[in-house]
Amino acid sequence: MRGEPFAGIWQLTELSVDQKVLTTGLLAADKRTLGRNAFVNKDALTGDTIDNQLLFKFNTADIHHTALTGIGYARSYEDHRRR
After folding, report:
1. Is residue 12 part of a domain?
2. Residue 9 in contact with residue 51, Cβ under 8 Å?
3. Residue 15's closest CA among 49, 41, 46?
4. Is residue 1 part of a domain?
5. Four-CA torsion 27, 28, 33, 37, nearest 10 degrees
6. CA 9, 13, 18 angle in degrees (round to 5)?
7. Above 50 in pLDDT, residue 13?
8. CA–CA distance, 36 with 53 (Å, rounded to integer)
9. What percent of the chain has pLDDT over 90?
10. Which residues have C-beta within 8 Å of that of residue 82, sequence separation ≥ 6?
């Protein structure tokens, strides 16, 4: 067997957001009143991924074969709290 018979990748991703937002709306008909909205966004995202491959090379008589098999898996979790 030539080359790498097994290849695997594992990755962990983490992201956190702490955001304070003030938004404004349209000016009211009296041309003096502006609507506003404030909120705090706290968000956390965690993700795991794994991808592995197994490579088989073999011969039957004069025929050369290459077989590739593997498993891929991904999982993510989001914790979103709006206050």
Report:
1. yes
2. yes
3. 46
4. no
5. -70
6. 175
7. yes
8. 53
9. 6
10. 39, 40, 41, 42
- What distance lies between CA 45 and its chain's CA centroid? 8
Between CA 56 and CA 62 the distance in angstroms is 17
Distances (CA, A) of 46 to 3, 51, 80: 34, 17, 12
Half-sphere exposure of 59 (CA within 13 A, CB side): 4
- Supply the DSSP string of 6-67, one letter for each residue: EEEEEEEEEEEEEEEEEEEEEEPTTSS-EEEEEEEEEEEEEEEEEEEEEEEEEEETTEEEEE
Number of domains the chain contains = 1
Write the CA distances from 55 to 9, 26, 58, 68, integer angstroms.
Answer: 15, 61, 10, 5
Residue 29: both structure tokens together: 């008909």
Q: 41-74, pLDDT tens digit by residue?
A: 777 778 888 888 888 888 999 999 988 888 888 8
With respect to residue 60, please indicate whether it lies within any of the assigned structural domains. yes
